[in-house]
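Closing statement on the NDP sub-project.
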Amino acid sequence: MLKFAVFGNPIGQSKSPIIHQAFADSLGISIEYQKVLVPKDDFSARAKQFFRDPAAKGINVTVPFKQDAAQWVDELSQAAKFAGAVNTISRQDGGYRGDNTDGVGLVADLNKHKVQLKGTHILLLGAGGAARGVIKPLLAAGAQHITIANRTESKAHDLTKLFASNKVTATSLQNLNQLAGVIPRFDLIINSTSASLYNSLPGVCDEIIANAQVVYDMVYAQAPTVFLKHARRLGVAHQYDGLGMLVEQAAESFHIWTGLQPDTTAILARLREMP
Ligand code: NDP
């Protein structure tokens, strides 16, 4: 029996146990995967306690502990270094390694939807942890240029400094909206803000959204998010939510822990049916 957990606060809504159990069942391996509600200042003690059990192999980490986890581990993968955050901890000989699978998850989901990334111009809305984790993988997948626009402009600029590439630039939402008729259209708009969680739009004007081929909202919900509904009304051909990203990033965690690559199609369909 291999033991895993997801650490977060809040944690009640996490779908990770269902996803990982489905992966394990489909591959015929026995796991226990629990949700752990971790008090805000207790990440380190709880992680140590979890790994005292020799059967404990890994932890998924969600809000608000991804940066704590990056501090806690002994070694960071390249992806985790770039993201500045860890969502997957694995026990290794004599220590713990931190990974970040969000970017791999997003690119895998976009690939599944057959969204072209090579040579594309992407508008990335938001400059939080999720945005930071996906920039490098999007560039590695062939994106031609990524424009980051964030409600707090300075955070978007800070993010570009980490990448030091002329393929990643930042702008304010105000600037972006003023230039709507002048700048070339974006092939893909990725909403990495949490605005949809509050039923808000992320602040980009209709003209820019309407000219995109594809919009992607990292937030997922039973019904299409407010951003996806808005894009559909504006005539955007393809709109996708982040449920696929969630499942794909979980598959990458599972692969890191077990060396096995689970199929994601069946569990994604099951989650779509769940209330
Ligand atoms: P952070 O808290 O680090 O960043 C939140 C971002 O959203 C900031 O850029 C913030 O702007 C912006 N924002 C928040 N509210 C609004 C608003 N009303 N209008 C415009 N911008 C807003 O969160 P994360 O980056 O970690 O996560 C962002 C979202 O992505 C979350 O909702 C999360 O659920 C989702 N996510 C989904 C994943 C998946 O697998 N599908 C994986 C990871 C994240 P400002 O800087 O101005 O505050």
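The radius of gyration is 19 Å. With this model delivered, the sub-project is considered complete and its resources will be redirected to Aim 3.
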